[in-house]
Amino acid sequence: MHGDGPAGSPQGPAGPPVCYRHPGRETHIRCTRCERPVCTDCMVSASVGFQCPDCVQAGGRTVREARTIAGARVRNTDGSAGATGAVVTKTLIGLNLAVWILVLVVGDKVVDRFILLGRAVVGGQWAGIAEGEWYRLFTAAFLHQEPWHILFNMFGLWMLGPPLEAMLGRVRFLTVYLVSALGGSALSYLIAAQNQGSLGASGAVFGLFGAALVVGRRMNADLRPLIALLVINLVITFLNVSRIDWRAHVGGLVVGALAAACMVHAPKNHRVAFQVLSIAGIVAVLVGIVLFRTSQLS
């Protein structure tokens, strides 16, 4: 007589156990987790001994999914779980380029319609944010006219975007970008003359500078090259205040840093709720600024 094997373990009629997946194959190898016999084709190497395919699959379901420091899923370059492939960054660059080409083809009509403008007479009638055209707070961030302007902004977006997108995740990265653009527009609207126009993605790009500093600090990275580059850009900004809207740059920088801080310093418990509420708070403050300025101009 032959002794019984573990519960659920198939056993050959002549004695040696057989693989639970291939009843015709005798084997003396057992899974270290469930102790079922497995043949050489089914066994999977483990840290200690071998495991059966079912136990490996069950173990995989219990492994915690990899997350970024902001809580987003880690993705591969193909979009599956591992770097992001910079999908959002590429889309933003493509959108900016498309609008720039539209401006070249159509001309000033597009600029007059979507530029950041407090309140002024355009085409014989009043126009601007104070006249209810709030969309200008965002559309201006996608407008460019001079080739050098879009070249520098898209270079900055391409340099800062992919690593931030990988570390924050697509949705959080896009949120930081758009909130930074809103922050730059809000400060420009608050301080600039009501008939002074402003356009360009600079506010959003400076927001990515601020976000990169916060994320780099969180990861204990060497920030000296990034700080040097930011200082150079700020010097260029304030040396050309007659041509560059410094308010949009500063506003985007501050808001981008605050938004990123809300992302990477959120508590692990209720992290998403904290991030959503924090960003909502930032947006509420910016909306308050816009409402205050509108009341002045109205």
From TrEMBL:
Signal sequence annotation: none
Name of the protein in question: Rhomboid family intramembrane serine protease
Subcellular compartments: Membrane
Origin superkingdom: Bacteria
KW Transmembrane (keyword) present: yes
UniProt organism field: Yinghuangia soli
Pfam families in UniProt: Rhomboid (PF01694)
UniProt keywords, alphabetically: Hydrolase, Membrane, Protease, Transmembrane, Transmembrane helix
This protein's record includes keyword Zinc: no
PANTHER family hit by this protein: PRESENILIN-ASSOCIATED RHOMBOID-LIKE PROTEIN, MITOCHONDRIAL, RHOMBOID PROTEASE
